[in-house]
Amino acid sequence: MSGTRRDRRVAAVVAVVAVVAVAAVVVGVVSALTASGPAPRRVGRVPPSAPTAALPAPPGEAFGVNVNRLFNDLSYTQTQIDAQLAAVRATGATLARSDAFWEAAEPHAPVAGRHTYDWSFNDQIAGSLAAHGLTWLPIIDYSAPWAETVAGQDHSPPRSDADFSAYAAAFAARYGSGGAFWRAHPGLTPQPVSAIEIWNEPDNPEFWVPGPDAAAYARLYLDARTAVDAAEPGMRVLIGGLTAPGAFLPAMVQAVPELAGHVDGVAIHPYGRPGLVVDRVRGARAALVRLGMGAVPLYVTEFGWTTQPPGAVGYGPAGQRPAYIADVLTTLGHLQCGLAATVLYTWVTPQRNPADAQDWYGIANPADASAPTPDTAAFAAGLRAADGPPVGSPPAPCPT
């Protein structure tokens, strides 16, 4: 959502943050991170081979919820994480979206072209989700401190597309089907990553500093997709969470025409009241149709409402939010709009500061995951309705 910062940086100051995993599958230690000085952006095209054709749309529509605060806040114990994820799975959700921060995996620049990764942070997420039968939808973001084009701004684009793409490829190889993580944890039932988002809201000036650049992002997306395809063929690479796809997608294609035919999916964030959410999904589909990309699937990877403070951007009254959640899920489940996934924002937030809207997007009880709330009950009901037969007249199909 424009004007809000939903992620929590893994380490905002020089510090060592230990993430102790009580569950047997993971033990995480996240390294100290520092900001780098200013440097010009150098764009690397990796590898130089032409991108492969877009993958066909996946069958059906998956449903889930963002779980980013469980991991990004670095304040939940493994026991608390497990309790919350068990509650997520009990709703019927199968997909869980959370950041795969580049800075956590590669806090130090490569030496002589050799990348060294610390997988502790990502391993905790992958292991925790798999232990509860949830598939991870990761966001490959943002710039590592040594790669920032604007010093101290992790939301500034990377100096080198090649370095970012190398991380995306290494991530795909580790957590994709048959990846090194699953081989190292034979006691887990594998839940391989099958799709990844490249960046989050690159059309939002808060997440692409100092301002959105459709051409730069299109090149980054294509380079990352080509690298991921070489490392893990068949993994879907998604354009990351657009807030205004009707404007940004045409700008991307105009700047980099080769993008057409090489997009596996487009993630969108259609925030607003329920009717506006649906209208914005229709608008995104119409934009793709106009570009001759009508077969590209859409992924609604964020929609939701904060209940504090009244009047905040994204506000929805607490008494009305359960109906909003159930209505939107039900509608999107039957929209016939080429949706591959619908993911609510977000499962749990601290609910501490009434002046901080980000503390009130969560639908779950932060103190007791086993205690249902009106919102989690509505979420579960919405999932059942979305996955079941339509009741009454189905919504009109989207443009084709």
Number of helices: 11
Mean pLDDT: 89
Distance between the termini: 27 Å
> How many β-strand runs?
10
* Biggest β-sheet description: 8 strands, parallel, barrel
Strand adjacency order, main sheet: 3-4-5-6-7-8-9-10
Going by CATH, the homologous superfamily would be: Glycosidases
List low-pLDDT spans: 2-48
CATH class: Alpha Beta
Structural class: alpha/beta
The total domain count is 1
Sum up the overall morphology in one term.
globular
Q: Determine the fraction of residues in helical runs and give it as a percent range.
A: 25-40%
Task: Please characterize this protein's 3D structure.
The chain has 400 residues and is an alpha/beta fold. It has one domain: Alpha-Beta Barrel (TIM Barrel), CATH 3.20.20. The protein has eleven helices and ten strands. It has helices at 68-72, 78-90, 102-105, 120-130, 161-175, 180-184, 214-231, 245-255, 274-290, 321-333, 374-387, and strands spanning 17-19, 28-30, 62-66, 95-101, 135-141, 195-198, 236-242, 265-268, 298-300, 339-344. The chain has an eight-stranded parallel β-barrel with strand order 3-4-5-6-7-8-9-10, surrounded by five helices. Strands 1-2 form a two-stranded antiparallel ribbon. Helix 7 crosses helix 8 (245-255), helix 8 packs parallel to helix 9 and helix 10 (321-333) packs parallel to helix 11. Mean pLDDT is 89; it is low at 2-48.
